[in-house]
Amino acid sequence: MKKIFPVIILMLGFVLNISAQKHSLNYRIKQDFSPANDIVGIKFDSKGAMWVATSYGLYKKEQNEWLLSGAANIYMQSFFIDKHDKIWTALWGGGVHASVDGKKWESIKAAAPSGSANVVTADNKGEIWVGDFSAGVLRSGKDGWVNYKAGNVALGDNSILAILPDNKNRMWFGSYHGLSLFDGKLWRLYNKANSKLPDNNVYALLADDKGDIWIGTCNGLARLSGNTWIVYNVENSGLSSDLILSLGVDAKGNIWAGTNKGINVFDGKNWKTFNVKNSALIDDRIQAITAYKNAIYLGTSKGITVFN
């Protein structure tokens, strides 16, 4: 029995490891060290194809291959696929580009006056919104692009880091100097001076199925439910870091908060943290979170991890 016992332990460990691996999968765009593995965005088109934005360009996954869409060595900040499968990209040093097929690209110069765009998305009506590097917010319209700037409206500053449309047709904007709300008529600015926002640097925004707004900052995570603020940080919750880089919500309503020290999952009561030490996570810096069907896709600085 003494000789058999270690074998049983080894086999049990092997079975447990295989079982754990069934629930996760890792992808690398390039197998060697490459900026193509620095993931900043993950989206799926209407046909279920996965598109990935990186520090080296935009890639589309086709079977077991990653195909570069457009030019290489382009530093992407974010991208968006609209309801017509048109792809919109926000580029550092390149402004905004759009493509209907991922092959021919059009430069939308009016959408990024500074020449660099941080974020691009669409509202519930399908209008495109762009967060510029230094020229505020741009919105597509019938008569061209409308430009909102700090000083004219209640934006914290003109460098927009995050944009979120909520289920009330309102728009939220994160900047280096606070969180802004636009209801279609009026603007309002939230910051540390007039609210419980834990920090004025707002990096990520999320609306959950209850209509609550989640705000990721460099000093904790805030939840705005109506007029009630709840702040989560390392000291009062299960967060692994106060630096919140990305946010997502899964099919069960769990909140996923990406940090520089792993991914944190909140079910409304309890927190769980997954990192490279206790899971198959490919890297601890979580820069993008996308829920698709029954899986969560995590974009890191070293590739993609999928949790089922």
What do you see in this structure?
With 308 residues, the chain is mostly beta strands. It has one domain (24-307): YVTN repeat-like/Quinoprotein amine dehydrogenase (Methylamine Dehydrogenase, Chain H, 7 Propeller). Helices cover 6% and strands 47% of the residues. Strand 20 (220-225) and strand 21 form a beta hairpin. The protein is globular, with a radius of gyration of 20 Å. The two termini are 38 Å apart.
- Oligomer designation: single chain
Number of strands: 28
The main pleated sheet reads as: 4 strands, antiparallel
CATH top level is Mainly Beta
The DSSP helix count reads 1
**Mean pLDDT, nearest integer?**
92
End-to-end separation: 38 Å
**What is the fold-level CATH name, i.e. the topology?**
Methylamine Dehydrogenase, Chain H
Order of secondary-structure elements: HEEEEEEEEEEEEEEEEEEEEEEEEEEEE
Question: What is the gist of this entry?
Answer:
The protein has 308 residues and is mainly β. The chain has one helix at residues 4-21; strands at residues 24-27, 39-44, 50-54, 57-62, 65-69, 76-81, 87-91, 95-99, 106-107, 117-122, 128-132, 137-141, 144-148, 160-165, 171-175, 178-182, 187-190, 202-207, 213-217, 220-225, 228-232, 244-249, 255-259, 262-266, 271-274, 286-292, 295-300, 303-307.
